[in-house]
């Protein structure tokens, strides 16, 4: 190709998450049904001219921060989102900060549920004031068990269920239960010292260089980046309207993506349409 382009979605290359993706892609755990993501962490750090304190500059927390998680959902599930419902707000972060005459308006917590075209569902639990480190969990629930990636422990926990249907009146005895397999994913000290996310930046750049050298498509396309941002915009629209937001016009065309809030009760109706 005459040029090469790749969107920087480095969470795909965090070692425990990369292992989770491999497990799901392998099919050994059966069909994928749900993906749950949780990030509990510290508030946004200070950036150049405090641009990350205002929705008008970032598109909102669920765009600026959440796009990485929405990208993970699409990558793991391998389907397109069709509807999003979100609830969130600004509980305590940055309320005592003033820049010029403006106080930051970015949200600091949210719960998001995403429905996908193939029937799978995903959720995000984001809190930007929960603790002093960046604590993340990604959980994939499949037909025959679940795969869980944890960070910063860099651990993958795999459970292969022995029983699916609840046909007894009592829980399984301890000796009957599936024993989780816990895999520690080592991260070389040099990579850990070079940046955040357990060396993900190094692995991401290797993937980019490999694509360039071998003249093949990069792992994260412009469409992937666009969809991650669109999901964040839809989540904010859902918070604003209090309704589920349907994503319409999901295609690789450049004529835009429509976000249509829908719902019941006093907010029922076609609602406004936002176009990206």
From TrEMBL:
This protein's name: Gfo/Idh/MocA-like oxidoreductase C-terminal domain-containing protein
Positions of region (Disordered): 252-276
UniProt cross-references to InterPro entries, sorted A to Z: Gfo-Idh-MocA_inositol_DH, Gfo/Idh/MocA-like_OxRdtase_C
Pfam families xref list: GFO_IDH_MocA_C (PF02894)
Domain of life: Eukaryota
Stored SUPFAM superfamilies: Glyceraldehyde-3-phosphate dehydrogenase-like, C-terminal domain
Residue ranges annotated for the Gfo/Idh/MocA-like oxidoreductase C-terminal domain, each copy included: 22-245
Organism: Noctiluca scintillans (Sea sparkle)
């Amino acid at each position: 190709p005459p040029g090469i382009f790749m969107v920087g979605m480095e969470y795909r290359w965090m070692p425990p998450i990369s292992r989770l993706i491999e497990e799901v892609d392998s099919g050994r755990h059966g069909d994928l049904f749900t993906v749950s993501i949780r990030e509990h962490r510290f508030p946004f750090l200070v950036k150049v001219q405090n641009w990350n304190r205002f929705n008008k500059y970032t598109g909102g927390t669920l765009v600026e921060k959440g796009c990485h998680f929405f990208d993970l959902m699409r990558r793991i599930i391998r389907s397109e989102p069709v509807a999003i419902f979100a609830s969130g707000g600004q509980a305590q972060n940055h309320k005592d900060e003033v820049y010029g005459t403006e106080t930051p308006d970015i949200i600091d917590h949210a719960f998001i549920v995403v429905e996908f075209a193939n029937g799978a569902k995903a959720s995000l639990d984001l809190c930007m004031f929960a603790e002093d480190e960046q604590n993340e969990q990604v959980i994939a629930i499949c037909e025959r068990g679940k795969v869980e990636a944890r960070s910063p422990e860099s651990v993958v926990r795999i459970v292969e269920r022995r029983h699916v249907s609840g046909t007894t009146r009592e829980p399984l005895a301890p000796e009957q239960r599936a024993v989780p397999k816990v895999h520690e994913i080592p991260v070389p000290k040099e990579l850990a010292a070079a940046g955040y996310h357990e060396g993900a930046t190094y692995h991401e750049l290797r993937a980019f260089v490999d694509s360039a050298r071998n003249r093949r498509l990069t792992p994260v396309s412009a469409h992937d980046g666009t969809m991650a941002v669109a999901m964040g915009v839809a989540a904010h629209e859902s918070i604003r309207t209090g309704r589920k937001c349907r994503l319409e016009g999901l295609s690789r065309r450049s004529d835009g993506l429509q976000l249509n809030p829908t719902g019941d009760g006093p907010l029922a109706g076609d609602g406004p349409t936002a176009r990206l």
